Amino acid sequence: MLIEVKEILGKRILILGEMNSGKTRLTAKILDDVLGIVDPKNITVIDMSPNTVPGVGGRISLYSGNVMKVRYLTPEVIRAPRIEGRSKDEVLNFAEFNRMSIEPLIQEFLSKPTRILFINDLSIYLHSGNVSKIVKCLELSHTVVANSYYGESLIDDKGSGISKRERERLEALMNKFSHVLRINNSIQKL
């Protein structure tokens, strides 16, 4: 692995890439490695990945059984707005549904933060959510590993504006991370 687990501690790492580029798989691998040296009670995973469309997104639990050892926060249902939505209104409704499903988990973390935070599929929350809540999560954690869609394959948002909003919010958040890794065909070393 190009990322040494000891290099991760004390840093905020954002993993970016296209759909199905391996972001979640890498995040799960990092989680497994961190669990080799950190007590699981010091780790929270907030998993925001859609689970309503096969082949889209992927929860960390698909790649690591270790999520059951840590505080694993994930809504029962998360929608894929740009893929499932057939109209502007439907896309916006799915984005709002996701925000309402994810915010209680963010609040749970904010009320009882852990030293290490993993966030899977941050872009889903950025469609409609409050960026300042994410910033608070980052500030409360000693170590953060998050991943997010950052590409062109999901640009068609049926005129809802969520693609532009997602990109702008994600780009504004990038400066809150100490390292930004872009997955193309290779992963840049820390």
Write a concise keyword list for the protein shown above.
190 residues, alpha/beta, Rossmann fold, 6-stranded parallel beta sheet, 7 helices, globular, disordered C terminus
Indicate the topology:
Elements: H1 5-8, E1 12-17, H2 23-35, E2 43-47, E3 71-73, H3 81-84, H4 88-111, E4 116-120, H5 122-126, H6 131-140, E5 143-149, H7 162-173, E6 179-183
Parallel strand pairs: 1-5, 1-6, 2-3, 2-4, 4-5
Helix pairs in contact: 4-6
Overall morphology: globular
Strand content: 15-25%
Helix vs. strand class: alpha/beta
Discrete helix count: 7
Order of H and E elements: HEHEEHHEHHEHE
Give a short account of the largest sheet: 6 strands, parallel
**Please, what is the CATH homologous superfamily?**
P-loop containing nucleotide triphosphate hydrolases
pLDDT averaged over residues: 91
Number of domains: 1
* Low-pLDDT residue spans: 186-190
- Sheet with most strands: strand arrangement: 3-2-4-5-1-6
Total E-strand runs: 6
The helix fraction, in percent, is 25-40%
Instruction: Characterize the quaternary organization of these chains.
Output: single chain
Radius of gyration: 15 Å
